[in-house]
Specification:
This protein is of the alpha+beta class. It has three helices and eight strands; from the N terminus they run H-E-E-E-E-E-E-H-E-E-H.
């Protein structure tokens, strides 16, 4: 085993315990709808182990775990092929995730703009990207 897999065997249970405690505590206190929780890596990983017994960056697929924020959670959106190499059902774009999170804090990503240093307005997400209907309605 590579050092990464050994490290993950120690770190992932701690992440699972901490994340589930956070979600449970917020739900019990009635604050879960007020907080959006996102667990998301910067890149997917190759579906096969390389010669160093590790996995490389892979743009074909990735994942995100989202909870709270008033979203309809407890579901899996999309699917990959059997090797988790490519999406085969309901691919989700990064911009859709961003639009969903903006929606959850009350911003309309198709109408809200941010002004740059030259005074030009820029939308929060690229045109044509909307909040994920599976999560927000």
């Amino acid at each position: 085993h590579s050092k990464h897999f050994i490290t993950f065997r120690k770190q992932l249970p701690a992440l699972d315990i901490g994340l589930s405690a956070l979600i449970s505590d917020l739900a019990e206190d009635g604050r879960l709808d007020d907080v959006s929780i996102v667990v998301w890596g910067e890149f997917g990983r190759t579906p096969r182990i390389n010669k160093l017994n590790s996995r490389d960056h892979w743009p074909g697929t990735s994942f995100a775990l989202m909870a709270g924020g008033g979203m309809r959670t407890g579901q899996v959106i999309g699917a990959t092929d059997k090797e988790a190499a490519y999406p085969i059902e309901r691919p989700v774009k990064f911009q859709e995730v961003f639009a969903t999170l903006y929606h959850c804090i009350g911003l309309d990503p198709s109408m809200t703009t941010v002004t740059d240093n030259q005074g030009r307005p820029h939308y929060l997400v690229e045109a044509g990207n909307h909040p994920m209907p599976e999560l927000v309605g």
